[in-house]
Design a protein that fits this description.
- It is a single chain.
- It contains four helices and four strands; from the N terminus they run αβαβαββα.
- It has a four-stranded parallel beta sheet, with helices on one face.
- Helix 1 (13-26) crosses helix 2.
- It has helices at 13-26, 49-58, 71-81, 109-126, and strands at residues 39-43, 63-68, 86-89, 104-106.
- 27% of the residues are buried.
- By secondary structure, it is α/β, with parallel strands linked by helices.
- The chain is globular.
């Protein structure tokens, strides 16, 4: 039995994973460019699609950490990643890590939220 079309192509997990794979491949992050022992932060990780693709591609040689402001997104990420990444609730503008803690950092999913938030704030200030 096939899945029901929701009208949103990104509601399908396979479509989201392919999109994440293309994005990460364009940055060279799916090949061996991440050295063993690297620490990668996905700030604003959403439901964990990017970390899922990366942790499957690189295995346990790399420490993966995700943060998101939303409790729901953190719960979804933790369930999706099943221990392959540490995910915690945090604001991307005030992360609970020391400077230079990570060798690599991504801000993929959060950039959409930050742009929307800035737009809403500027609309409010114009009223």
């Amino acid at each position: 039995m096939g899945s029901v079309w929701s009208g949103d192509p990104y509601a399908d997990p396979l479509v989201r994973d392919r999109r994440a794979q293309r994005r990460l491949a364009s940055f060279g992050l799916l090949d061996s460019s991440l050295p063993a022992g690297a620490r990668l932060l996905d700030a604003g990780c959403g439901s964990g699609e990017t970390l899922d693709v990366l942790s499957r591609a690189h295995g346990t040689d790399i420490e993966f950490v995700g943060t998101d402001f939303s409790k729901q997104a953190v719960s979804l990420s933790r369930a999706r990643l099943a221990g392959r990444a540490n995910v915690l609730q945090a604001d991307v503008t005030d992360l609970p890590f020391p400077t230079s803690h990570f060798s690599h950092a991504l801000l993929c999913s959060a950039s959409l939220s930050i742009s929307a938030m800035k737009q809403k704030l500027s609309l409010r200030s114009a009223e």
